[in-house]
Design a protein that fits this description.
- The protein is mainly alpha-helical and 331 residues long.
- The chain folds into two domains: 139 residues, Peroxidase, domain 1; 136 residues, Peroxidase, domain 2 (Orthogonal Bundle), CATH 1.10.420.10.
- Helices cover 47% and strands 2% of the residues.
- The protein has a two-stranded antiparallel sheet with strand order 1-2.
- Helix 2 packs across helix 4.
- The longest helix has 24 residues.
- The radius of gyration is 20 Å and the shape is globular.
């Protein structure tokens, strides 16, 4: 019986891998060359205009892409608005902290694309989000890269689909590895994508347990630099303003760089999930140390990880998805 179960598991795993490869194989660079040839320029220009309005465009868009791909695959289902008959992904507690600027970036880019007659309703919201995520990284000084395109937008969006699909600030390396592996991503991919926390901010409630009444009985998490913890306590008192926020990278919060890893070396990772990458000396610390020293190696790993992330659960067959006329409303 044990051998039989193992055989079934191997067959299931093989089928998942084959399905994943087939799905990603249908994505390609320059997918819209004969459909909407200037789409990438249109999207990047729209993102640049949005960025002039607020820097929050960058971390908000990047985080939106991650949250979308990890739930039902990269299908823009996170953008769909709730209706009286259905509570959508975006209203799940794990998504309520997503900044509106990420949604607005995609919506405005979609409008700019659809304003070109040749392109109207021919480019998916999912692809626009993937392009915008690449563009905000480049505009923040990070690597630029070719994006694989050809995704369709998902046909459903439910709050229940989010349950247990997104990593939490309290996660440690083992939990992170398991969740990323479930999406076909390696430990190296996980560490590279975690470095997106070099941009953006967090509300105090997301890390309050590390600076007050730490669960081990000490007032402050011992893996957090004590001087840094004192600074955090100034901005985040025990009953903070709900809108109070902290830059996740205390050194270069507006630049996409490898400072994230140097911060971990100094025990200035804001979340447990960040700092655990350095604290785990047997698993992930060596990668943190390597990328803290070699920004080019990190950039290459990040591009590889974003490319793999962009293949997760994609819909390319007409029976699985479509192109929404409005990113926030299912067709």
């Amino acid at each position: 019986m044990g051998a039989f179960k193992l055989a079934l598991l191997l067959i299931f795993t093989l089928n998942v891998c084959i399905f994943s490869q087939l799905a990603s194989a249908q994505l390609m660079q320059n997918y819209y060359a004969n459909i909407c040839p200037d789409v990438e320029t249109i999207v990047r220009n729209a993102v640049a205009v949005k960025l002039q309005q607020t820097f929050a465009t960058i971390p908000a868009t990047l985080r939106l892409f991650f949250h979308d791909c990890f739930v039902q695959g990269c299908d823009a289902s996170v953008i769909v608005a709730s209706t009286p008959a259905n509570t959508a992904e975006k209203d799940h507690p794990d998504n309520l902290s997503l900044a509106g600027d990420g949604f607005d970036t995609v919506i405005k880019a979609k409008a700019a694309v659809d304003a070109v007659p040749q392109c109207t309703n021919r480019v998916s919201c999912a692809d626009i989000l993937a392009m915008a995520a690449r563009d905000v990284v480049a505009l923040a000084g990070g690597p630029d890269y070719a994006v694989e395109l050809g995704r369709l937008d998902g046909l459903s969006s439910t709050m229940a689909s989010v349950n247990g699909r997104l990593p939490q600030p309290s996660f440690r390396v083992g939990q992170l590895k398991a969740m990323f592996a479930a999406n076909g991503l390696s430990q190296e991919d996980m560490i590279a994508l975690s470095a997106a926390h070099t941009l953006g901010f967090s509300h105090c409630s997301r890390f309050a347990d590390r600076i007050y009444n730490f669960k081990r009985g000490t007032p402050v998490d011992p893996t957090l630099d004590q001087a840094y913890a004192a600074q955090l306590q100034v901005t985040c008192p025990q009953n903070p303003d709900p809108n109070a926020a902290i830059d996740m990278d205390p050194v270069t919060p507006r630049a996409f760089d490898n400072q994230y890893f140097r911060n971990l070396q100094q025990r200035k990772g804001l979340f447990t999930s960040d700092q655990s990458l350095y604290e785990d000396s047997l698993s992930s610390r060596s990668t943190v140390n390597a990328w803290a020293q070699d920004s080019e190696a990190f950039s290459q790993a990040f591009v590889a990880a974003m490319t793999k992330l962009g293949r997760v659960g994609v819909k390319t067959a007409g029976t699985d998805g479509n192109i929404r006329t409005d990113c926030g409303i299912l067709n």
